[in-house]
Amino acid sequence: MPGTSRDLTRLRTAITAFFALDGFLFAGWVVRIPAIKHQTGASAGDLGLALLGVSAGAVLTMTLTGRLCRRYGSHQVTVACAVLLSLSVALPPLTHSVLALGAVLLIFGAAYGGINVAFNSAAVDLVTALRRPIMPSFHAAFSLGGMVGAGLGGLVAGALSPTLHLAGLAVIGLLVTAVAAPTLLRHEPPSAPTLLHDEPPSAPTPTPSAPETSRRPRGRTRGLVIVFGLIAGCTAYGEGAMADWGALHLEQDLDASSGVAALGYTCFALAMTIGRLSGTALLERLGHGRTVVAGGATAAAGMLLGSLAPSLWAALLGFAVTGLGLANLFPVAVERAGTLAGPSGVATASTFGYGGMLLGPPAIGFMADWLSLPVALTSVAVLAAIATLIGVATRRAVPN
């Protein structure tokens, strides 16, 4: 178990590297989806079915990963999933049918879902040991990795085939894993808040009644974990909606050019990254409960502006405010669930979150058909408001 501040700093750096790698690899795959669609000759409907492989693999693996983390340790599972994710990202360009594509995406999704539960569990343990609310910094690394992966993919798309591009990403993934893995594998996850060995003692160190990795949610705890999972789901619903429908709203409803419309998600993602980079300071100042309440209220107001504003620039401002508001809700929800129930709590919250991200785009599509896209996008504001109410109700449920 890491005991000095230097050990914990190295552990934090290694976990941050895996968060960034996850975002980098996933974004790199996403930007090559159009080329893979052309390669396999898939229709839009067929491609949608194949892409369900990612979702199915992730959701099916998340609960299993919580159990694996309890049995083998979150550090070991993180490394194993990172290897699988790096290898599987190179597989889609090697397929030439929708069925084969769906099969390899099932593997990719399993690795993606697994590593998300594993490194979030490792991060929760480290937050506990450091006694500082640093969870948003890990998710900021994921966001930054995604921005780099998408940007690099856009730059090389015209010069490299999907096969070479994604094979290159696989090599990068394996190299990053090789560099960061030894730090994780050398140290067991911290199991309870303790004084660092190089700090003067000021109070007796609490003795845990059970290891962190053995906790399972029971009774009221299970209910609270589900509640925090709902916050994660409300947040991820908004992220999925902005990714898939934000640009279309600007282009279709506000007559933006395709280039300007693309700025919508860029504003949202950049604001979210900035919000997560400043998340630790915000949590230290406000605490977890008030951060959720403030973030949810900010996101609700921002999305009402972004979806209903008659002006393009007002809508872009609304998208940015939404990103700032949503930025720290998911990290806080996962951390609170992990604090209550260890890897099982992380798995539950992550599953709710991923479910929200999957539900958002199709739900908004159906509502847009029945009503209109601007009205459909207000559902993001409604769910952000629900997250705010949950935050108010659970402010005292888990100590800050």
Descriptive notes:
The radius of gyration is 21 Å and the shape is globular. Helix content is 80%, strand content 0%. With 400 residues, the protein is mostly helical. It has 14 helices and no strands. About 6% of the residues have low confidence.
Give the overall pLDDT as a whole number: 85
Distance between the termini: 24 Å
* Helix-strand makeup class: mainly alpha
Which word captures the global form? globular
Low-confidence stretches: 193-217
Main β sheet profile: none
Note the run of SSEs as H and E: HHHHHHHHHHHHHH
**Beta-strand fraction estimate:** under 5%
- Number of DSSP helical runs: 14
Rg estimate, integer Å: 21 Å
Amount of helix: over 70%
Number of strands: 0
Concise account of the structure shown:
The chain is built from 14 helices and no strands. 80% of the residues lie in helices and 0% in strands.
SSE order and pairing:
Elements (H helix, E strand, L loop, with lengths): L4 H26 L2 H8 L3 H29 L1 H15 L9 H33 L4 H22 L5 H25 L32 H35 L4 H20 L1 H8 L1 H21 L3 H15 L2 H42 L2 H21 L7
List keywords for this structure.
400 residues; mainly alpha
